[in-house]
Specification:
The chain is of the alpha+beta class. The chain has helices at 46-63, 81-86, 88-99; strands spanning 4-6, 20-23, 26-32, 71-78, 105-110, 121-128, 137-138, 141-142.
Length: 145
């Protein structure tokens, strides 16, 4: 089975990477920071950056036919773990707003820096999408069923 790139047109065009890679019905979600459509990290702190980064992950997931409940694993890289912890309730509220009450296996890992110097968070993950919801992807773009 040949891996297929998944690159939603609503996200910044990737160069040298894919937003996601579909192999069978497993979608490997590439690391997403808080980049907006204009290729800028959203301002406002960790809660706003979590919202944008996780939203970018969900955009890629949905492009392949997935829903938040299909997420089986997430890894969250943070440049300031105490800041993330201090805003945990707000971040939890954003999670429930975007994904509902289901949580995959997760890890939070501290790091000194991310690709964009102003990025505070990067999220990557894995999802398993049931065959009946899997969207056919061609050339990196989801095709309407």
């Amino acid at each position: 089975m040949t891996p297929i790139p998944v690159n939603p047109s609503s996200l910044p065009a990737p160069s040298g990477y894919s937003h996601g890679t579909l192999s069978g019905n497993t979608l490997y979600l590439g690391g997403q920071t808080a980049l907006d459509a204009d290729m800028r990290i959203v301002p406002g702190g960790i809660v706003e950056q979590f919202r944008q980064a996780f939203g970018n992950v969900l955009t890629t997931l949905r492009a392949a036919g997935g829903i938040p409940e299909d997420l089986v694993s997430l890894t969250i890289y943070l440049t300031d773990i105490p800041d993330y912890q201090a805003h945990g309730k707000e971040i939890g509220k954003v999670w429930r707003e975007l994904a509902g009450p289901v949580y995959p296996a997760m890890a939070g890992i501290g790091t000194t820096a991310l690709w964009q110097p102003e990025a505070m968070i990067e999220i990557l993950g894995v999802a398993v999408i049931p065959d009946e919801r899997l969207v056919q992807v061609e050339g990196g773009n989801a095709l309407k069923a």
